[in-house]
Design goal:
By secondary structure, the chain is an alpha/beta fold. It is built from 10 helices and 8 strands. Helices cover 40% and strands 13% of the residues. The two termini are 29 Å apart. The model has no long low-confidence stretch (mean pLDDT 95).
C-alpha cells in the first residue's frame, strides 16, 4: 500500500493526532470476522509510522477495523509496540467481563466502536434493533471514562438521532456522519448532525471523505467542513483513515494537505489536530 512521496503543505501543530487509522497483519496471522467488506490489506505498523513521521503526527488513535470483527489482537499488539502516545477504539461484546475492560483500559483503550456497514441499504427500524447494544455499551463506557465511536450509514445516523441525543457520555461519529456531500452543507440531515454535535458531547471526524464525495478531488466536501467549522469548531477531529481500504488509490499526504486548504487558519488546525482529540481521548 503506497502513499505519495509529496511533502505536507503545512506544518502540523505540536501534539498533532491522527484520530482514525487501522493496522493489519499479514494474511493468516489474525483471524478475520464473518463480515468482510473489503480484501484486508497487509498494513503493518512500521509502514503507518513512516507516513506519520512525514506528516508530523505524534499522537495516535488506533481504530478496530471491521475485517477483524471483535478480535482486537492485531491492534492491541501494535499498541504495545508504540513508543509515542497512543489510544485505541475496540469492538467488543456489550457483556464483556469487567476484568477484560480493565485490562483494555490499562493498554490505552478509550472507546468502543459501533460499526455498521456504511453502504448498508436503508432498513427502517434497524436503529431499534441496535439501540439496546448502544445503551448497554454507553453504560459500560461511562463507568470507565470511555466514549462511543460510531460508523453508520447516513440514513441510520439520522434514524438514531433520538438515541444519540439521549447519551450522557462523549461520542464520536466517523466520516461526517456519512452524509452525502452532493446534497450540500445545507441539507437537512447534515444540519441534524451538526445540531447533534452542537448540543451534545459529540465529536465529528473529518475522515473518509472519499466515502461521501462524488466531486473531483472531493471539492463538494469543502462546504461541509466549512459549515462544521462555523458550527462546532471545538467538536471536530481529523483522521487519515489509513490504509483507505476500498479507496486505497488515495494518498494520505494529499488528504492531509486538503485539510490545510479547507482550514487555512493555524489556530483552527491546532484545535482539530491537537486540542479537540486531546480532550476526547485523554492525552
Amino acid at each position: 500500500m503506497s502513499h505519495s512521496n509529496t511533502k505536507p503543505a503545512f506544518i502540523a501543530p505540536p501534539n498533532a493526532c491522527d484520530s482514525h487509522f487501522h493496522v493489519f497483519g499479514p494474511a493468516g496471522q489474525y483471524g478475520y470476522g464473518t463480515e468482510l467488506r473489503y480484501e484486508p490489506p497487509h498494513a503493518p505498523l512500521e509502514d503507518y509510522l513512516e507516513l506519520a513521521r512525514c506528516l508530523g503526527l505524534t499522537r495516535f488513535v488506533f481504530v478496530q477495523p471491521s475485517a477483524y470483527g471483535r478480535d482486537n489482537r492485531c491492534m492491541l499488539d501494535a499498541m504495545k509496540q508504540m513508543t509515542l502516545p497512543c489510544r485505541g477504539i475496540v469492538d467488543i461484546d456489550e457483556d464483556e467481563p469487567d476484568n477484560v475492560l480493565g485490562n483494555l483500559d490499562a493498554l490505552g483503550i478509550r472507546g468502543v466502536r459501533i460499526n455498521v456497514r456504511p453502504i448498508m441499504p436503508a432498513q427502517p427500524g434497524f436503529g431499534d434493533t441496535l439501540a439496546p447494544r448502544i445503551r448497554r455499551l454507553a453504560a459500560r463506557c461511562s463507568e470507565l471514562g470511555w466514549h462511543l465511536d460510531f460508523l453508520l450509514p447516513d440514513w441510520l445516523t439520522v434514524e438514531l438521532l433520538p438515541v444519540l441525543r439521549s447519551l450522557r457520555l462523549p461520542f464520536s461519529i466517523a466520516h461526517l456522519g456519512m452524509q452525502k456531500a452532493k446534497n450540500g452543507a445545507d441539507a437537512a440531515d447534515f444540519q441534524h448532525v451538526l445540531d447533534l454535535a452542537r448540543n451534545n458531547d459529540c465529536y465529528l471526524k473529518i475522515t473518509g471523505i472519499y466515502r461521501i464525495s462524488t466531486a473531483p478531488w472531493f471539492a463538494d466536501v469543502g462546504a461541509m467542513v466549512q459549515a462544521a467549522l462555523d458550527a462546532v469548531p471545538d467538536r471536530l477531529i481529523w483522521g487519515s483513515d489509513y490504509p483507505h481500504l476500498s479507496f486505497d488509490e488515495n494518498s494520505s499526504v494529499d488528504l492531509f494537505n486538503l485539510l490545510g486548504e479547507w482550514v487555512p487558519d493555524a489556530a483552527m488546525r491546532q484545535k482539530i489536530l491537537a486540542d479537540n482529540p486531546a480532550r476526547l481521548y485523554g492525552f
